Amino acid sequence: MVLRFVILIGVTNLFADLTYEGGRSITGPFLAQLGAGAALISIVSGTSEFLGYALRAVSGYVADRTGRRWTLVFVGYAINMLAVPALALAGGWPAAATLMAAERTGRAIRRPVVQAMLSHAHTDVGGGRAFGINESLDAAGATLGPLVIAAVIAAGGGYRHGFAILLLSALACLGMLVFTERRYPNPAAFEGHDEDQGEGGTRRRPYPTSYWLYLAAAALLGFGFVDFALVAFHLQHTSVLKPALVPVAYAVAMGAGAVGNWVLGRAYDRFGLPVLLAAFAVGAAFPPMVFLAGSAWAFAGMALWGLNKGAQDTLLKPLLAPLVPANARSTAFGLFDTAFGTAWLGGSVALGLLYDRSLATLVIVSVTTQLLALPLFVLGHRARRSA
Questions:
Q1: Which of 21, 37, 133, 135 is deepest in the core (most CB within 10 A)?
Q2: 332-361 residue pLDDT tens
Q3: Which one, of 362, 343, 342, 338, lies nearest residue 352 by Cα?
Q4: Structural domain for 155, as ranges
Q5: How does 286-296 read in b/e, with b if 16+ C-beta sit within 10 Å?
Q6: What is the pTM of this model?
Q7: CATH code (residue 283)
């Protein structure tokens, strides 16, 4: 029963990722078509990501306090899904930027709550395996989405046609969500809790030192991680890839993530922290391949980009879940993601400005910042074992 819930959530997210990752594969070039430059594209993308992370602390807290988790999930998915096909109607870059922010806001509302629901499966399924299955299905959808967009462009359609066709997958996602909620209205029961009860009178316990060290490490990862909108702008602006191949590069990243998420989740349950360290060490090598080399290396770099992104989604929450009581997990996940998103915004602004000045400096800052996160993960692990 628990595994079926994980799979149903995963299929829901497959359609979700097909929709918004398909859209994100062309938002950079679409903004450029509407008159935005590299710095503006990076700032718009970073701001959207910031909203997509900053509001998670709020939605997670509201979910834990009120117990209205499914309500927040439905609201979040609806905004998340419907904003993407609406981009087909955007008349200028400000309107497109607003819809991009709305899409990330919807994801922010539902993301920590869904992750908390999945964390309840750790006893029966395994934390790494549960998140790995979910993120693999996520990545499968994220692989299909850009390929759909690439096919539309290759057939002579424009970016607007691509956004419009994603309405079909958006509606499929919302339909799967309704089905899943009716089958599993109380996922907290997997862990022996009543999800409909808010935190109520439960005494709050301070988060342990290891939580804050992990949060600081994740912030460094977020600062150094280059958003795909800037990568896509670079690949097309410098003619490293033809326009129709830019979504394909994103599909390569998501495909690598789909395989990596499955393997990383199972490996993490068995071997723990070394798997996380290795994934982020290898994943940090993508910037020089993407920004300083030719098309073949660009595809290899995007595969590592996808591995890095998959590790963020698959490994960080199982790392945190044992540190936090089940009925406060949405809050803890939301706060963690807010710190990550704030750092991502700062990094997006900094890296976007560096792009116009020195690609080599951009690469050095990106790689160095991500690698600096690894010692903090080790210190967090030691603090956790000594607690």
A1: 135
A2: 888 898 888 888 888 888 888 888 888 999
A3: 362
A4: 2-187+209-386
A5: bbbbbbeeeee
A6: 0.73
A7: 1.20.1250.20
